[in-house]
Amino acid sequence: MFTGLIQCRGTVTRCTARATGARLAVDAPGLAASGWTLGESIAVNGVCLTLVEGSALEFCADLSAETLARTALSSLKPGHGVNLERALKVGESLGGHLVSGHVDGVATVLRLERDGDGRRLAIEIPGDLTRYVARKGSLCVDGVSLTVNTIEGTVARFSIVPHTLSATTLGALVPGALVNIEVDLIARYLERLMPEVTARS
Asked: Which residues contact 199 (CB under 8 A, 6 or more apart)?
């Protein structure tokens, strides 16, 4: 599990095609300082990946064909910045919201406009995911826990505060960019439970 609070930004150094997908290498000195554990989970732009190699500066993770097909990681190239978060440890503070790292879909950036020292972000989400998005609810965008300002049709809008701009890659988004989104787990479970609750009442 993750929280959607980004611990540091990394830079893609390599993305090498393999028979079953690809191997991604990310320069991440901010995480490397505390050491690596082979097999640990790291969220890269909101996608839970398993660390298979680690050095003094970077780590590597394998991307399956399924991951490449269902996330925006397939568009990453050397030099691209990524948001990184290690898995939540028992006893640590949950400052954002519960994030599984299992991306639900890919959204398209419509606008990123200046709003004082912050920004206003608008993205278009897949239509089948709109039912899970609520005003003032949580949505994970490229691994970042954000509060939904409004949801109108398939367009969700957010306010990005200066700290988030400096700590994540969201400030570099441009119209047409693709971002990974994960809906609130609570919404998923409520949908699953509602038919059962209705049947009992």
From this structure: none
